[in-house]
Design goal:
Blueprint (H helix, E strand, L loop, with lengths): L1 H16 L5 H4 E3 L3 E8 L4 E9 L7 E6 L4 E5 L9 E8 L5 E11 L5 E11 L1 H8 L4
Parallel strand pairs: 2-8
Antiparallel strand pairs: 1-3, 3-6, 4-7, 5-6, 7-8
Length: 137
């Protein structure tokens, strides 16, 4: 009986030591989706994702990759101290009118899981945008 109990304790400890950290264990995003609203066609528009390091160790953003060529990203390159904030800037170049959902994949050092964050909104032609922004009479 002691052997069974000892083996189960050992197995539980071994499994816990090999458990993979998840993004939710180290980072908390203020928002995982940013709605840019109505934007003008051909005018690059930026959204800024803010995240907080909720772990006790410095957090490093290894990559923040857009899933298409119409979006570029930049992010905090230095380690983010425990309890401090970092940012991921995503700039969408609105070439075509219509609704969009653009995703970025975020990879943190030491974490196998990849996090997806989203820019969304509606691209309006110059004429539609001017009508929307025109003062009401």
């Amino acid at each position: 009986m002691k052997k069974i109990l000892l083996a189960s304790v050992f197995f539980t400890l071994a499994a816990a030591s090999f458990a993979q950290k998840k993004v939710a264990d180290v980072a908390k995003f203020t928002s995982e989706t940013i709605n840019l609203g109505n934007i003008k066609q051909g005018v690059p528009t930026k959204g800024t994702f803010t995240l907080t390091n909720i772990s006790a160790q410095p957090l490093i953003i290894e990559q923040a990759n857009p899933t298409c060529g119409c979006t570029i990203s930049d992010y905090t390159k230095e380690p983010i101290a425990a309890g401090k904030n970092g940012v991921i800037n995503a700039t969408y170049n609105a070439a075509n009118p219509g609704h969009f959902d653009k995703h970025l994949t975020v990879k943190f050092a030491g974490i196998d899981e990849v996090k997806s964050i989203t820019l969304t909104g509606d691209v309006l032609s110059a004429e539609e945008f001017a009508k929307l922004k025109a003062p009401k009479k």
